[in-house]
Amino acid sequence: MAAVCQVTGKIPGFGHSISHSHRRTKRRFDPNVQKKTYFVPSLGRKISLNVSTKGIKVIDARGIESVVKDLIAKGVKL
User: Fold this and answer.
1) Out of 10, 39, 60, 69, which could bridge 31 as a Cys pair, Cβ 3.0 to 4.6 Å?
2) 9, 74 in Cβ contact below 8 A?
3) H or E element that contains 61
4) Is the per-residue pLDDT at 11 higher than 90?
5) Contact 5, 55 (CB under 8 A)
6) Percentage of residues in the chain with pLDDT exceeding 90?
7) Helix, coil or strand: residue 37
8) Burial of 49 (0-12, 13-18, 19+ CB in 10 A)
9) pTM for this entry
10) What Rg value do the Cα atoms of the chain yield, rounded?
11) Do you know which InterPro entries this protein is assigned to (predicted)?
């Protein structure tokens, strides 16, 4: 599963792991992405979304209908 949130667009960040001797190695900071299933009454079916925990809070606040409408306007295939 790609570490990209479909609602907020949050993507991995990159940086360095720094050891005790201060050597730097590349690392990746992945967002906390979960696969969630929501029932959308306007579509009459369930949809599956990869959303970060922030995206889940956005869906709780705005409602799934509003979020799905924005996703369809962006051209995301559901």
Assistant:
1) 10
2) no
3) helix 53-62
4) yes
5) yes
6) 94
7) strand
8) buried
9) 0.84
10) 16
11) Ribosomal_bL28, Ribosomal_bL28/bL31-like_sf, Ribosomal_bL28_bact-type, Ribosomal_bL28_sf
The helix/strand/coil state of 73 is helix
The 10s digit of each residue's pLDDT in 35-64 is 999 999 999 999 999 999 999 999 999 999
Computed over every residue of the chain, the mean pLDDT equals: 95
Amino acid at 16: H
Question: In this structure, is the dihedral angle defined by the CA atoms of residues 51, 10, 55 and 43, taken in order, positive or negative?
Answer: negative
Q: Rounded to an integer, what distance in angstroms lies between the CA atom of residue 28 and that of residue 55?
A: 20
Confidence of residue 1 (pLDDT cuts 50, 70, 90): low
Hey, how many other C-beta atoms are within 10 angstroms of the C-beta on 14? 9
Q: Give the 3-state secondary structure of residue 42.
A: coil
Q: Residue written as tokens 């792991």? A: 17
- Pull the structure tokens for residue 20: 């005790």
